[in-house]
UniProtKB/TrEMBL annotation:
Name recorded for this polypeptide: Uncharacterized protein
KW Transmembrane (keyword) present: yes
Originating species: Candidatus Thiodiazotropha taylori
Key words, A-Z: Membrane, Transmembrane, Transmembrane helix
Bilayer-spanning residue ranges: 16-35, 55-73, 85-103
Lineage: Bacteria, Pseudomonadati, Pseudomonadota, Gammaproteobacteria, Chromatiales
């Protein structure tokens, strides 16, 4: 009985790990394929700098996305809490810091 639940847990953990790795690989491929478009967009729209309104919009959506990531990874699951919360908070801090420095 104990062996069956252990095997079931291992199988579920393996499935979750495979899905996460596949999602990261797909995201990496998408980013690589979109790199020319993103670099052209950045060259055209970001070279003169952004105004306060535009940077506020970007900052708002970045904050919302990070809060959603916090909410997804802070549960009591296979994926733990602290190893994602601390780097996420650091990324949030650095991103907001750079956006504020960029605007002013």
């Amino acid at each position: 009985m104990i062996g069956e639940t252990d095997k079931k847990d291992k199988r579920e953990s393996r499935t979750i790990a495979i899905v996460l790795i596949a999602m990261l690989l797909v995201l990496g491929v998408v980013l690589v394929l979109m790199l020319p478009e993103l670099s052209e967009l950045a060259r055209i729209h970001l070279s003169p700098g952004l105004g306060v309104k535009d940077s506020a919009l970007i900052s708002f959506f970045v904050s919302v996305v990070l809060l959603v990531v916090f909410a997804l990874f802070s549960g009591d699951g296979l994926i733990g809490e602290i190893q994602f919360m601390i780097p996420g908070f650091f990324l949030f801090f650095v991103l907001n810091w750079l956006l504020i420095a960029w605007v002013f």
